């Protein structure tokens, strides 16, 4: 629904965590086991809850493969992108997905959640390239985990999808911003994106190169001015025999001579 993104920010995950804690406590209370075995039971139940949550996230990530038909899902802060952001944040321990006090293995589950977020975003963006500008904006997020996760997927999709339409200077600005990132993996991704951008837009086989057509001859001027006639190749001379002011040849002829370096 339209309030999905706001609900995600308002505490859906803490509510889920409270439900898990409540269920574990109720199951332990009904177990009838001796106190010596209650700790083992509690750990087992928490582990099962984490496994179930992880498998559920994986299933949702795979469901994002394919075109979207719901406009609400495509919103920059819609429920899907907010959910993916939350998965990325769990990788640096700042998100609620990390499990809180649910066990010492929460770090490994956080890393798994961040990887699920990467797969989810890759499936989403590969099938819905119109979201590329939105994901580009997320590469500048103030949260380093979110920005890094989106940037990794943006690099991967742009490298594999020639149909991505984006202004070259936008990607070049992102490369320059990310190439000095303190994380080595992010710098490597930035360098790779620069190579792909150069090969696609300015390489020898690029179809995006724009070749300017030759200028039309001015009225009354001989064509040898452009074809290299009596006055030399491409040298439009004034009646006095000197290059006209305002032309490239005039600028070069008036430039001071370059002195040899010491």
Biggest sheet features: none
* N-end to C-end Cα span: 72 Å
Number of helices: 11
Q: What sequence of helices (H) and strands (E) makes up the elements? A: HHHHHHHHHHH
Radius of gyration equals: 30 Å
Give start-end ranges of low-pLDDT stretches.
1-11, 95-105, 209-215, 221-227, 230-257
**What is the overall silhouette?**
elongated
Overall mean pLDDT score?
A: 73
State the helical fraction: 55-70%
- The count of DSSP E runs of length 2 or more, i.e. the number of strands, is 0
Instruction: Tell me the β content.
Output: under 5%
* Derived structural class: mainly alpha
Number of domains: 2
Write up this protein.
It is a single chain. By secondary structure, the chain is mostly helical. It has 2 domains: 127 residues, no CATH class; 74 residues, Alpha Horseshoe (Leucine-rich Repeat Variant), CATH 1.25.10. Helix 3 packs parallel to helix 5, helix 6 runs antiparallel to helix 7 and helix 7 runs parallel beside helix 9. The longest helix is centred in the first third of the chain and has 29 residues. The N terminus is likely disordered. This is Cell morphogenesis central region domain-containing protein.
Write the layout of secondary structure elements.
Blueprint lengths: L3 H7 L1 H20 L3 H29 L15 H11 L16 H22 L4 H7 L5 H17 L7 H11 L5 H18 L22 H4 L20 H7 L8
